[in-house]
Amino acid sequence: MPVTIRDVARASGVHISTVSRTFSAPHLVNPETRVRVLACAEDLGYRPNRAARALITGRTHNIGLIIADIANPFFPPLIKAAEGQARHRDYHIFVADTNEDPMAEEELVHALAKQVDGVLLCSPRMSNSLIEQLSREVPLVVINRQVTGLPCVVMDVGQGARSAIEHLVGLGHTAIGLLSGPRGSWTSREIRRAAGAAARAGGAELTVLGPNPPTEHGGLALAEHVQRSGVTAVLAYNDLMAIGLIEGLDALGVRVPQDVSVVGIDDIALSRLTRPKLTTVATPTAAAGRTAVDMLLQQDTDAPRGPRGVGRGTAVGARRTTAQVMLQTELVIRDSTGPASGAGSPGAARVGPDPHRPADPGRPRAATGGAVAS
Amino acid sequence: MPVTIRDVARASGVHISTVSRTFSAPHLVNPETRVRVLACAEDLGYRPNRAARALITGRTHNIGLIIADIANPFFPPLIKAAEGQARHRDYHIFVADTNEDPMAEEELVHALAKQVDGVLLCSPRMSNSLIEQLSREVPLVVINRQVTGLPCVVMDVGQGARSAIEHLVGLGHTAIGLLSGPRGSWTSREIRRAAGAAARAGGAELTVLGPNPPTEHGGLALAEHVQRSGVTAVLAYNDLMAIGLIEGLDALGVRVPQDVSVVGIDDIALSRLTRPKLTTVATPTAAAGRTAVDMLLQQDTDAPRGPRGVGRGTAVGARRTTAQVMLQTELVIRDSTGPASGAGSPGAARVGPDPHRPADPGRPRAATGGAVAS
DNA sequence: ATGAAAGCGCTAACAC
DNA sequence: GTGTTAGCGCTTTCAT
């Protein structure tokens, strides 16, 4: 039923190898022949079978993308960007969801390995050593984690957390809570480290609560804990948790930001829609997706021309250069943070019809990270 | 580098076909041999090359999933469910995003056709006839659209819209606006049709505004229009638009639900987090994803044993039975709808610390659709 | 510039 | 129960 290279060959009166060349090395075929073949292919509706091609070239033109949780709004923009970039380069993306399960991650890498030219490992929860091991099976690009020796793209959440803490300290907060993320998260460790240092530098005390599931519920469940802990400000692992926490505090009658300030991380679309609008550290997720695809593809196209043209030179020291890209983050100050304690006038705040603040006056930026490559 | 079936054969001292059988028809091989082969395969790290297998079996064990916009929070749960169900059945999912572009849809079907055993076409914007045509190239299951002759899974948005309108009419609204969705959306047409009928039946007037992009911005942009139109209630094509509209109205000083009631459709996670919490028609998106995968796979496994065992019987009338599944929807009443006009006491509503309603008292359900097959 | 032939990794008759 | 053989659709030497 499906039309193959042979049908096209027959129709255009050439050998199949000529048809093949027409598609994979057009310059090697006579322009006239090429046109004729192309025409036949066109109206037979011929499409090269990529699987068959892959069998011999070793290139599937597929990329695997392993995600902790597609339903977490942090990821879709990243997926979308990766998919777009990949398609733009004539690649397709396999998406797999691990449900935050480290076991699933490993299994999925194995399952995908043969079908793809490389895998984008997003926010992995497994160990570094396992990642390294897997990278010997299939080219890997790690997102949201630094693994030495492997290409990575991370957001500078350290800088982001620092800015957030400085922002809170600047508002007079001296007892700050940190809702950490899931166990195994590089990002969570980074945040904790940076936040701890920044708090110390600012003379504030940091109370770490966690680890927690990186979900709205994870935040919500901590509301009472936060209330009892006596902190006046909280930095959450991500926006979802921050939003959940605000919900939870609200239910306890604790007002944000009057009683407690809350800062999130990610700047998902949602954070502009909740009330109060969330102060958060914006992470460039789309850029991360695009960059990761580019890095993988570059690595991919570099590979084949490795030991070629090299006479009997030194033992091919040209190990692939594995870049580590760090993307900038930016603190976006909205309405969920305010001066510490007594400053607000309880009861008067947020009354009915028009509690409209200057409404997001052009995204005041506060800090940035830097770009680094190694 | 990669270990093939031949390596395993050599290691276990059998012919490659035995190894092959061990994986694709274990019952045909001597238990002892099987164990030995499996052991060798195990510690050589052998994984069957699915592409090579597909070349001969015609089954790739891949499914294509074409989505209008991954970043639209309506879709991730569907993707996640589909992916999970697929993996559970040992299939992988290719995800592609069309950016709401009908052209991209067609191209993507073509691009995926050879790589997958079937395609899930989600919320297609292209024409029915084109869909039918494409279905001759690759098995299709259509989601969120009814196409006669093709397997479909749709949500009963008609029933949902009806319930929504009845709810509004019951609250005394007689001038109701409908924010329609994107051109080419089956769902949008269904909603419009059902909402129109329900409004007529309830003695209310329905003003249709659209088509519109199915995004937050699409709703936000309509705020002024809604305000001027004089309607006291609005049903939006989806939650995103409803939320955008509320934002927009809020900016104009129009209060929801005191001045205008707003109902969304979908019940995305977000709609529980905005203020006011959104009254909306819940659609079972995860179920839709799972069901679609099941339908595709069933069709897929049915296909091969078609003209087999049939003596010289009648001309194989056994055309595949294409089911059309309709999933129930449910009106979830929250805080964005209220009595028409004068009923609310402006200014007193929603004051500071504790404007807590009975907080979602167990999801009052109001209506359901039915399940149908053809 | 084009044809011939080998073979990618695997499965599927068909023998034995 | 297992080995033999042919070939899926395609690319890629190697001749011509």
Average pLDDT for all residues of chain A: 87
Number of helices of chain A: 13
Strand content of chain A: 5-15%
How many structural domains does the protein architecture of chain A include?
3
Biased composition (Basic and acidic residues) (chains A, B): 353-363
Protein name (chains A, B): LacI family transcriptional regulator
InterPro entries (chains A, B): HTH_LacI (IPR000843), LacI/GalR-like_sensor (IPR046335), Lambda_DNA-bd_dom_sf (IPR010982), Peripla_BP_I (IPR028082)
Keywords (chains A, B): DNA-binding, Transcription, Transcription regulation
Give a description of the structure.
Chains A, B: Residues 353-363 have a biased composition (Basic and acidic residues). Chains A, B: Residues 338-349 have a biased composition (Low complexity). The structure is a homodimer of 374-residue chains. Chain A is of the alpha/beta class. Chain A contains 13 helices and twelve strands. Chain A has helices at 5-12, 16-24, 31-44, 50-57, 75-88, 102-113, 128-134, 157-170, 186-202, 216-220, 223-229, 239-251, 285-302; strands at residues 62-67, 92-97, 118-122, 140-143, 152-155, 175-179, 205-209, 233-236, 261-266, 279-282, 324-327, 330-332. In chain A, α9 links the parallel β6 (175-179) and β7. In chain A, α5 (75-88) runs parallel beside α13 and α11 (223-229) packs across α12 (239-251). The two termini of chain A are 51 Å apart. The structure holds a DNA duplex (16 and 16 nucleotides).
